[in-house]
Design goal:
Organism: Cyphellophora europaea (strain CBS 101466)
Number of domains: 2
Distance between the termini: 44 Å
Helix content: 25-40%
Order of helices and strands: EHHEHEEEEEHEHEHEEEHHEHH
CATH architecture of the largest domain: 3-Layer(aba) Sandwich
Strand order of the largest sheet: 1-2-12-3-13
Radius of gyration: 18 Å
Strand content: 15-25%
CATH class of the largest domain: Alpha Beta
Protein name: Phosphate/phosphite/phosphonate ABC transporter, periplasmic binding protein
CATH superfamily of the largest domain: Periplasmic binding protein-like II
Amino acid sequence: MAVAALTMYAPPTAVSNAYQELAREVAQRLGIPLESPPPDLPTLWHHPQLLLAQTCGYPYVTELRPTVKLVAAPRYTLPGCEGATHCSFILVPASSAATTLADLRGKRVAMNSPDSNSGMNLLRLAVAPLAKQGRFFSQVVESGSHAESMARLKQGRADVAAVDAVTFGYLRRDLPELVEGLRILQRTRQSPTLPLITAAGRTEQEVEGLREALAKTLAERPDLAEILAIQGFDAVDEGTYLPILDWEHQAIEQNYPTIG
């Protein structure tokens, strides 16, 4: 028995359901029975019988490299995505007077998680040249999710947030009311999309089998491909994601080690 769950994108419900269907179909194609996955992501990522999961690039490079193998990265058709990369959109309320990132000095930032590449690391890299004595924002609010960060902007409880282009694209398409009233101030640099991973103990042959099963499922289930806005998967390796650490080091060198 193995475990598989692709749970990094929710809401919208149709998208989260399609990701779960993709994981189940891959397992079925490989003839691998699944048991219920653990409810929390860290336990799922470290599970010794992990077949397939999705993680953020930042925890991959900072924590997970010894315990997982990379499988592939999706190529999305959503705005802000190029090949197997995506950016984050730095969002402000539509009513904000800000026209540049520098205009947000002393404002409140909503951040989904301190270990998020899209919500923290890419924003930190963008802000670092503007920080003074390690400070730029007046307050950092940890929201718990990109959707909640956007909600706080709309409620006037935060002034800026960085949201990855995939999340933003899904929400703008399926739940436009969550995006209304927000404005893209600027884009961050491009970054590898969230990688699909498997347990470190799996062989290269098994990893290649997972890639083939993903490709076949996407080709034979155009309904899933459309809902997920995925046009294919690229094989990736550790080197694909190591620039994420370089961006962290660049911010540290500019005396901006943490968002603040």
